[in-house]
């Protein structure tokens, strides 16, 4: 029982998804549901009602009639138009109807085939090491909750996992072969993998192709199973309606057929040919007309979706990233020149793909917040000043820390300067120890300073703002009173910091 429970749990994880788009759900969810409903309807008619009724000779008893109906149901019938008087002697010339017993199984098989790409997508994206489903669910939870602490926690979870995925398997940029591979990846869409930063995006395109092949292929597969030219069935139906043809006389789903069977009586074999009516074909025809048009519609929108995602994947995504960041004021217009490196070197095709999937399933606000947090992390890692609390190695605006390098990770001020805006700390004093940032000027207003250690406004001040920053680059942990920041001269024993 434990093994069975584990298998069912794994199957449930594979079949519950929110990591694709609406067109994928049209294939795997709604089409599958329709096919299962049709299979149930046909099965009910077959096993509850009378799927076939044959006109038997007058000498047949009720038992003979029941036997005739059952033997004609299981042994197939053949169609002969009423304008043809003579029955062909050779069985090869008879248009046999062999499919009606298997309609429920055909429909169930089609439903399974429509769900297989979804299961493959779940298995393949799981191999990337990224919990894409968990990211989307975290984005949905972020959208639904109004608690600031919960939102911060969910956003940190998303940023951490996306950053780990984007940076953990990134190949070395140095070396001739590395540059050749990088060029090949840019020019050729057939080279992909986690180390190239395009595994998820190209795997997703492959799944799209499977959906297309499935919807188109099933139309031709039904031609084989039904023994008719089903691939043009819908076109012929429309043309027939335009001509005013009688829909009752259907060649592909005939209502009236003939059945040959033999009965052995007292050592003699008696051959009978009876005329049978298949009322179930009345339902089958309408169902398969709808299925034909549905498959064509699904194939067309899936092809359009594939082309859209192909364009998004191979086309430069920098414009999309800029639009998302600027839409919610995450970057200034003057800093958009940095986004090309952010998109190409950090996010890559998979990073942009992740934000698009999260935007589709969780909302553009969530994806913009995620992109903004990743942008700030990238700027922090590059040592470039960002907005409201980023660390700058060369001096910037809105919360930058300017200064030259000292010892033990110190940042020492090279020249005098007053406090900037939004919490800027300008270098005026010498560097302290253990990652302290010292400055002779005063701090600005309401701005976080993203730093690796303590921040003092004087080299010798004892009261500091203690910063405990993780790699995520989020805010202070245990921030002391901002009023304790000293802007006066330091203690005598620390004057040598100047």
UniProtKB/TrEMBL annotation:
It is a multi-pass membrane protein. GO terms for cellular component: gap junction; plasma membrane. Keywords: Cell membrane, Ion channel, Ion transport, Membrane, Transmembrane, Transmembrane helix, Transport. The chain crosses the membrane at residues 102-124, 188-207, 219-242, 287-311. Coiled coil: none annotated. Residues 386-444 have a biased composition (Gly residues). The keyword Cytoplasm does not apply. Pfam families: Innexin. Residues 489-498 have a biased composition (Acidic residues). GO terms for biological process: monoatomic ion transmembrane transport. Structural component of the gap junctions. This is Innexin. It comes from Paralvinella palmiformis. The gene is inx.
């Amino acid at each position: 029982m434990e093994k069975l429970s584990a298998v069912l749990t794994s199957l449930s994880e594979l079949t519950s998804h929110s990591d694709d788009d609406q067109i994928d759900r049209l294939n795997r969810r709604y089409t599958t549901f329709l096919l299962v409903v049709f299979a149930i309807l046909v099965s009910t008619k077959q096993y509850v009602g009378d799927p076939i009724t044959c006109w038997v000779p007058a000498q047949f008893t009720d038992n003979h009639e029941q036997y005739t109906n059952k033997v004609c149901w299981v042994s197939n019938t053949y169609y002969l138009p009423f304008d043809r008087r003579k029955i062909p002697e050779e069985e090869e010339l008879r248009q046999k109807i062999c499919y009606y017993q298997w309609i429920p199984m055909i429909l169930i098989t089609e439903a399974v085939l429509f769900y297989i790409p979804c299961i493959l997508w779940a298995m393949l994206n799981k191999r990337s090491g990224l919990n894409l489903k968990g990211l989307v669910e975290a984005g949905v939870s972020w959208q639904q909750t109004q608690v600031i602490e919960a939102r911060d926690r969910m956003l940190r979870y998303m940023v951490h996992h996306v950053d780990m995925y984007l940076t953990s398997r990134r190949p070395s940029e140095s070396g001739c072969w590395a540059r050749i591979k990088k060029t090949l990846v840019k020019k050729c869409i057939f080279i992909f993998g986690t180390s190239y930063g395009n595994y998820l995006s190209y795997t997703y395109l492959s799944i799209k192709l499977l959906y297309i092949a499935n919807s188109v292929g099933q139309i031709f597969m039904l031609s084989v199973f039904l023994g008719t030219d089903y691939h043009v069935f819908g076109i012929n139906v429309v043309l027939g309606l335009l001509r005013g043809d009688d829909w009752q006389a259907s060649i592909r789903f005939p209502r009236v057929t003939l059945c040959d069977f033999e009965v052995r009586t007292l050592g003699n074999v008696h051959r009978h040919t009876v005329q049978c009516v298949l009322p179930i074909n009345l339902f089958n025809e309408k169902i398969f007309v709808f299925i034909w048009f549905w498959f064509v519609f699904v194939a067309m929108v899936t092809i359009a979706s594939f082309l859209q995602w192909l364009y998004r994947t191979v086309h430069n995504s920098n414009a999309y990233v800029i639009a998302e960041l600027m839409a919610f004021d995450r970057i200034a217009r003057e800093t958009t020149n940095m986004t090309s490196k952010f998109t190409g070197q950090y996010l890559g095709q998979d990073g942009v793909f992740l934000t698009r999937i999260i935007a589709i399933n969780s909302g553009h606000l969530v994806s913009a917040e995620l992109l903004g947090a990743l942008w700030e992390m990238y700027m922090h890692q590059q040592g470039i000043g960002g907005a409201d609390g980023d660390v700058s190695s060369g001096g910037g605006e809105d919360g930058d820390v300017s200064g030259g390098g000292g010892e033990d990770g110190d940042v020492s001020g090279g020249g005098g300067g007053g406090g900037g805006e939004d919490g800027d700390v300008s270098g005026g004093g010498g560097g302290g120890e253990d990652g302290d940032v010292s400055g002779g000027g005063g701090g600005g207003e309401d701005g976080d300073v993203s730093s690796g250690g303590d921040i003092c406004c004087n080299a010798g001040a004892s009261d500091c703002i203690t910063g405990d920053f993780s790699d995520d680059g989020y805010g202070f942990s245990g921030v002391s009173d901002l009023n304790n920041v000293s802007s006066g001269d330091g203690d005598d024993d620390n004057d040598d910091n100047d």
